[in-house]
Amino acid sequence: MFKPMARKIYIELTPPSEGDAVADKDRIIRALEKDFGSVVMSYDVLKAHYMLLRNFDWKLTVTMIMKGHEWEIIQIERGNTTDKNYGYAVDLGSTTIIMQLVDLATGVILGQESMFNAQIRFGDEILSRIFYAKDKAEHLQEIQVCTLMSLNELIASLQKLTGISSSDCGIMVIGGNTTMIHFLLGLDPWFIFHAPYSPAFNSCGFIRASSLNLQFPGLVYCYPSAANYIGGDIISGLIASELYLNSPISLYMDIGTNGEMILGNNEFLLAAAGAAGPALEGGISKYGMQAKPGAVDSVKIVDNQIVLTTIQNQKPLGICGSGIVDLLAEMLLEGWIDRSGAFVPERSERIVQREEEYAVVYAWSSESASGEELLFTQNDIFSYMDTKAAANTMVAYLLEASGVSPQDIKKVYLAGAFGTHLNLESAITIGLYPDLPRDRFVILGNGSLAGACKLLLDASLYYTSESIIEKMVYLSLGEATDFLTKMFAAKFLPHTDLDLYPTVKEKLKSRNK
Fold first, then answer.
1. Do 360 and 348 form a contact (C-beta atoms < 8 A)?
2. Can you tell me whether residue 485 is helix, strand or coil?
3. What is the pLDDT of residues 166-211, one digit of tens each?
4. Is there a shared CATH topology between the 86-222 domain and the 242-277+389-510 domain?
5. Could you give the CA distance from residue 186 to residue 142 in angstroms, rounded to a whole number?
6. Deepest of 106, 186, 216, 404, by most Cβ within 10 A of its Cβ?
7. By three-state DSSP, how is residue 375 classified?
8. Distance set, CA 430 to CA 319, 324, 331, 494 (Å)
9. CA distance 199 to 417
10. For the residues 248-254, what does the mean pLDDT come to?
11. Strands 258-264 and 269-275, bridge-based pairing
């Protein structure tokens, strides 16, 4: 039985009379308070509906939103419309926005649509958008309008896809990083990236969709953030994973433009985060690309030859993050690169010298869609290893701060698109993930979206979402005295200390590398 954030309740009321002159608003609220406790109705809702009440023959359906300590009426309809109760779950990503339409009676996801975040026109990277908006109210408004425009386009797309009117949707739950939620609400996020790195808010509560010009008659709830880099998307993912409920120690990893890590259980939660950079989407390489048709997404070396696959089986255009991880892992195991990431040219004819730099040709000009050689260079490798080292070091820092050993981690939740599509063995081989029994890894997928959907269907999780940030301890990497030392140790494949990676050590040994 679901306990959704939005409820539709059908009531039949006794009409007012000379002996019963209770006001219309009070009459409705009193009927509901018997079962729901505190119920409120805003001025806006009263104004929109008070002239219609007498035409309903006092048989009506109210839509109410659970706001923690009270229910708020957001819509009144003629007759019984309780069979039409829906909500939106949203992952507000800096690159892509995904929205689901959820049936709040059955829990069924009726449709999903996605699109590029229109903010991209102000910069591919978040920092570019922040600088664009800094101290310029008109620029900040432009970014907010673009964000809301994207959400309204997705609302319209879902209505077209499912035939369900947005007027039947009472609630939207959004998971997004701290900066994205600031932009959504038209608040300057500059201080998130400027000392002392304090956002304008962590929790914004419930906001009327109409006040944001969103095209549905309900409320918007954004998952709260815990810190500048630990945003509502991560809190939403934690809710989806249920890591915070269980006694075994678990690790939550979401590696994207930023790397966010949570270590803990039902007694403690330690968080660390930092910039991971564009490497994970192939952005470090001239021929790197996002996971789009034609992107190399997997690589194997068989009989000293590269065998690759691409998205939608098109001719290769470039390489995305999952392909890069495979390429590095395979080259390490085959001896094409050493543990420092340096090429060993004599190991393959595909290792060539271009512009005074060694590179591997993963697609010859005759094999690529562009007719150009597709290269991954020595500098590309070293740049990627910086990103890998940052992620590795964040985990090491959390383990050290908590006094936990890697083997104490019983579950590793891999969130985000990168974690979903990555080859687990390859990621462990290069040291991106800890070397643990493979059955301890859980592919969570889009944790931000999953957590938003989960909250839609269980209103009690509102308290969890608001309280979990009080339990969380955020560790600032800038205060770690030996962080750079740990980073240097992690800039090897898989690590300078091979004993931390016993299965990789065995693979290298068995292949005489």
1. yes
2. helix
3. 999 999 999 999 999 999 999 999 988 887 778 889 999 999 999 9
4. yes
5. 9
6. 216
7. strand
8. 17, 11, 10, 4
9. 26
10. 95
11. antiparallel
**What is the SS3 assignment for 156?**
helix
- For the domain made up of 242-277+389-510, give the CATH fold: Nucleotidyltransferase; domain 5 (3.30.420)
Query: Going by C-beta distance under 8 Å and a sequence separation of 6 or more, which residues neighbour residue 137?
Result: none
Q: How large is the average pLDDT for residues 330-346? A: 96
Most confident range (mean pLDDT) of 14-18, 394-398, 439-443 is: 439-443
Cα–Cα distance, 338 to 82 (Å, whole number): 64
Terminus-to-terminus CA distance in the chain, angstroms?
57
- Report the SS3 class of residue 261: strand
Tokens 């739950």 label which residue? 173
- The pTM of the full predicted model, rounded to 2 decimals, is 0.91
Enter the DSSP assignment of 72. E
- The pLDDT value given to residue 278: 47
How does the average pLDDT of the chain come out, rounded? 92
93 vs 237: CA distance, rounded Å:
13
What percent of the chain clears pLDDT 90, i.e. is strictly above it?
A: 75
**pLDDT of res. 477:** 75
Domain boundaries, the chain: 6-78, 86-222, 242-277+389-510, 279-383
Q: Nearest Cα to 406, choosing from 440, 444, 447, 442?
A: 440
Which amino acid does the sequence have at 141? Q
Write the pLDDT tens digit of every residue in 455-482: 999 999 999 998 999 889 998 876 667 7
For residue 179, the Cα-to-chain-centroid distance in whole angstroms is 13
Choosing among 1.10.3720.10, 3.30.2000.10, 3.40.50.720, 3.10.20.880, the CATH entry for 6-78 is 3.10.20.880
Q: Residue 1 class from Cβ within 10 Å (0-12 exposed, 13-18 middle, 19+ buried)?
A: exposed
Rounded Cα distance, 86 and 33, in Å:
23
Query: What pLDDT sits at residue 279?
Result: 44
Identify which of 238, 274, 229, 216 has the alpha carbon closest to the alpha carbon of residue 393: 274
Separation CA 92–CA 151 (nearest Å): 9
CATH of the domain spanning 86-222: 3.30.420.480
